[in-house]
Write a sequence for this structure.
């Protein structure tokens, strides 16, 4: 069912191939030759990109030509992928949230949502733990370590 | 002995209330990092590194290295009580540790594992104390060609000695090199591989990569595996500790063997994980109770833990003496040195004596403090694991985001962290090793500079890499290690029956 390990292997190899090609192309523009007896700026990255591309082609050929039970097995089964997505997607939302409302508010929402939905906690304990965490982080970083983290409208309103 | 005198100077540096406090804090944080899934040595250190930018380098490295010791100790707690290795290097500890816990002997298993760790680390530190200054002194003679040869040796041994498919090790390493090249080229001042994006001008920071690859990637893997922490209770008190200690001397042969294997695997970048498996395999082969391994033997806990800790500690030897890290965590620490404005390499022993010997002295104290702390706080850390994962997972992700942001105060880095996280998940699933990527990301620019300086000196002749016996022998060893898998195969064909220890220890 779904994506086999082999397909995933080939897909990742393809991405690496294009990254290698992009590295080669970009270095080529800088000049891959030697300047005054020493390799120029593009020389080293060009060969790095070349090795990357060649190795990824070899990986893809190997994955396609050798069939084993392992390579036919699914990369990840659907029922195991749901929990992965259930972390990945909220985390992406969390990261976007950091840019919009600051890290403290976003963290509190992220944690409360996670506890409420994944952990089936009650509203009260979810809110208590998540707001407590955000306040603790604020105390620790802004007041103790004097490290300034991204803040949003709420912190501005409170004068920080 | 110069070393002894320097070491006592080092103790003088460390023994201030502030530094001792940082040491305890580091150990406690480290054990928590080692116990929690998704947080391990490399990214635990990476997340906390930005907080140390304002400290003195000596205090900073004391705290961060103690996090490293703590993480090594902590990995064993989850292995034994929960049958879940908190760190890859404690996988082998589950083989006998968990059966012991099932028999209600968790206290003995934990005592044995912590003590084994301590002994392994101690041997590693002795090695660093006496060997590192000599290596550094020798390396003072090195010029750019020798340094490039040593870098080559490191990279080749990762490819040839690694457990993962060599092609995938190569790809992982080249990705690291490519990312290291992004941004300003130090020699010509030209911008490289930025693809016209101004955000890429300052380059890709290795800390962000480590936090994403190891932190976020690990969380995603943990979710897929669906961990349920149903642990055994540990009954650990002074009586059990003393009883277990009384039985340990009879395992001196196993301890010695594991410590030596660990030191070897640490200096050559074999890594703590490989060392722990080898330690376990050797103990099983040579022990009179070999067939009972896996059913719950104290020896089966001692062997891998001693080797893992010896390896984890001696991985710092090449980092200090040559500026070449022997493990992913050592690579992060090395990156830290550069951020604090210290140039890693043999000159460190000359120019920053206080720093080096302070660090070495703190290794002795840190491991003693670590042993005491873990023996007395196991119930506390076992309780951390009973916190529901729906609280722990978001907390770890929040910590990763804060760590990634605080490297450059850049929101974009949090985005990079997510990309690295997804890549780390895919790479782990497809057997791409991550350590070579981190290594080449940290060392890439230095290796390239060494190569270009060499070429300037030799007027473009590659022959300089075998122009004198020193650089020639380093280059030769590099190529031997690169083709190691092929060479061992050849050896086995030529001498059937002489499979030796190395073969049997990697088979389980």
């Amino acid at each position: 069912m779904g994506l086999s390990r082999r397909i995933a292997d080939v897909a990742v190899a393809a991405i690496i191939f294009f990254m290698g090609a992009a590295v080669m192309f970009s270095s080529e523009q800088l000049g891959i030759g030697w300047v005054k007896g020493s390799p120029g700026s593009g020389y080293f990255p060009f060969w790095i990109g070349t090795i990357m591309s060649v190795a990824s082609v070899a990986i893809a050929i190997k994955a396609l030509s050798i069939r084993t039970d392992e390579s036919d097995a699914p990369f990840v089964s659907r029922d195991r992928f749901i929990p992965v997505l259930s972390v990945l997607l909220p985390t992406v939302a969390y990261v976007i949230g950091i840019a919009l409302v600051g890290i403290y508010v976003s963290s509190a929402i992220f944690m409360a949502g996670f506890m409420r939905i994944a952990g089936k906690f009650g509203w009260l304990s979810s809110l208590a733990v998540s707001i407590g965490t955000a306040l603790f982080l604020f105390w620790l970083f802004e007041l103790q370590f004097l490290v300034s983290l991204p803040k949003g409208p709420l912190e501005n309103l409170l004068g920080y | 002995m110069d070393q002894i005198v320097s070491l006592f100077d080092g103790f003088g540096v460390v023994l201030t209330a502030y530094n001792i406090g940082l040491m305890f804090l580091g150990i406690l944080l480290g054990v928590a990092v080692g116990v929690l899934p998704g947080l391990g040595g490399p990214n635990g250190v990476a997340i906390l590194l930005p907080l140390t930018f304002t400290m003195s380098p000596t205090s900073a490295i004391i705290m961060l290295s103690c996090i490293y010791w703590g993480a090594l100790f902590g990995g064993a707690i989850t292995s034994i009580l929960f049958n879940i290795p908190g760190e890859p290097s404690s996988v082998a500890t589950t083989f006998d540790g968990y059966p012991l816990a099932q028999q209600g002997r968790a206290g003995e298993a934990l005592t044995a594992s912590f003590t084994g760790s301590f002994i392994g680390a101690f041997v590693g530190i002795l090695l660093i104390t006496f060997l590192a200054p000599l290596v550094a002194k020798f390396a003072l003679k090195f010029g750019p060609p020798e340094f490039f040869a040593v870098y080559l040796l490191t990279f080749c041994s990762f490819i040839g000695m690694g457990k993962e498919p060599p092609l995938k090790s190569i790809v992982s390493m080249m990705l690291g090199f490519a990312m290291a090249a992004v941004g300003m080229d130090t020699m010509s001042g030209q911008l490289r591989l930025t693809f016209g994006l101004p955000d890429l001008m300052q380059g890709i920071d290795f800390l962000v990569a480590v936090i994403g690859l190891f932190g976020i990637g690990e969380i995603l893997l943990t979710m897929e595996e669906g961990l349920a922490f149903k642990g055994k209770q540990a009954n650990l008190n002074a009586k059990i500790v003393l009883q277990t200690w009384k039985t340990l001397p009879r395992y001196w042969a196993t301890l010695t063997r594991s410590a030596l294997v660990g030191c070897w695997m640490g200096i050559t970048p074999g890594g703590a994980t490989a060392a722990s498996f080898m330690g376990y395999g050797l103990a099983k082969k040579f022990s009179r109770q070999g067939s009972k391994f896996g059913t719950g033997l104290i020896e089966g806990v001692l062997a891998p833990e001693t080797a893992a800790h010896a390896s984890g500690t001696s991985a710092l030897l090449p980092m200090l003496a040559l500026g070449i890290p022997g493990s992913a965590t050592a690579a992060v620490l090395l990156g830290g040195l550069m951020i604090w404005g210290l140039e890693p390499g043999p000159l460190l022993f000359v120019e920053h004596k206080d720093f080096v010997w302070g660090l070495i002295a703190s290794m002795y104290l840190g491991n003693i403090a670590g042993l005491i702390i873990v023996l007395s706080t196991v119930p506390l850390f076992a309780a951390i694991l009973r916190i529901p994962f729906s609280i722990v997972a978001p907390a770890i992700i929040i910590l990763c985001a804060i760590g990634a942001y605080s490297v450059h105060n850049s929101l974009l880095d949090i985005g990079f962290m997510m990309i690295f996280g997804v890549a780390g998940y895919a790479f782990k699933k497809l057997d791409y090793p991550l350590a070579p990527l981190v290594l080449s990301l940290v060392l890439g620019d230095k290796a390239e500079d060494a190569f270009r300086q060499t070429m300037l000196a030799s007027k473009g002749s590659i022959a300089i890499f075998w122009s004198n016996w020193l650089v020639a022998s380093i280059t030769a060893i590099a190529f031997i290690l690169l083709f190691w898998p092929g060479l061992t195969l050849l050896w086995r064909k030529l001498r059937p029956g002489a499979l030796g220890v190395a073969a049997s220890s990697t088979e389980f």
